[in-house]
Here is the input.
Amino acid sequence: MIRIVLPAHLRTLARVDGEVKLDVESPVTQRSVLDALEARYPMLRGTIRDHVTLTRRPFVRFFACEQDLSHESPDTPLPDAVAMGTEPLLIVGAMAGG
Here is the structure.
């Protein structure tokens, strides 16, 4: 069971409270987790990654086990702690401004 923490605006859009828990088959990668998340919550399609290219949106970041995984390949396996469900995958809306 994979645990995912979404930013507040995406939790509201998906109508969920707290963490999202999903069954994801091995290998557990950013791509497989996001595919499962968008399949279960279709209203999130296009909010985390582009509809066509499936690349991460510019102001979205992925963190797990105190590491920024945002620039990793979508097919790189996530840390074992995430795959086992002991640590969540954090999807964070980046802040920008001046």
